[in-house]
């Protein structure tokens, strides 16, 4: 049988994508080289990695019906693992053990943009890898990206879905702001947008969401 033409959904080129969903099942294809410049406590950091075109297209062509799905957080993806390792390294070189604080600065380097403003969808959840390649997203997109990174940093993370907003919760006994109890653990609220509202800080639930009980989605 010719390489990459298998019908049994094998992954002929070993890139983690089954042949029937792989644009280049026999290997090849472009690799997007991504450089993210971010700052933490005024110190500049650069994170570089490659995202294979096939991987991006795989995520991009997955069906999506609801944002209430933890599948969009992909902590096991090698790209997310690379980012998490860079953040952990930066934490050491910056002398700041607050890894989620560095993760915030990384994610905030992405441009905030409503879905409707650039892809004519009112609500379009994106996989973490899509948000990175597109370099933009809105609340659910940056929440899925943040949850992916925090999980990869070994923080137990959940997604907090409000009436028309999404944020992240990470398990800790020592929350800097709002927290929720979920399945016997304390989860600290974490805002992932740098959007219009001047939030004051990332750790306190704001506006009408203060009076809501968020629906919890488990991150993958
Ligand atoms: Ca493949
Ligand atoms: Ca491939
Ligand atoms: Ca979105």
CATH class: Alpha Beta
Named CATH architecture: Roll
Q: How many structurally independent domains?
A: 1
Q: What fold name stands as the CATH topology?
A: C8orf32 fold
| Low-pLDDT regions | none
Helix content: 25-40%
Order of helices and strands: EEHHHEHHEHEEEEE
Description:
The chain has 220 residues and is α+β, with helices and mostly antiparallel strands. The protein has a single domain, classed as C8orf32 fold. Helix content is 27%, strand content 22%. The chain has six helices and nine strands, in the order ββαααβααβαβββββ. The strands form three sheets. It has a five-stranded antiparallel β-sheet with strand order 7-8-6-5-9. A hairpin with a 2-residue loop joins strand 1 and strand 2. Helix 2 crosses helix 3, helix 2 crosses helix 6 and helix 5 packs across helix 6. The longest helix has 17 residues. It is globular, with a radius of gyration of 18 Å. The chain starts with 30 loop residues before the first strand and ends with a strand. Bound molecules: calcium ion (3 copies). One calcium ion binds next to loops.
Care to give the gist of this entry?
The protein is of the alpha+beta class. It has 6 helices and 9 strands, in the order ββαααβααβαβββββ.
List the helices and strands and how they pair.
Elements: E1 31-40, E2 43-52, H1 53-60, H2 78-94, H3 99-108, E3 111-112, H4 116-119, H5 128-134, E4 136-137, H6 139-152, E5 157-161, E6 166-171, E7 179-182, E8 185-190, E9 215-218
Bound molecules: calcium ion (CA) (3 copies).
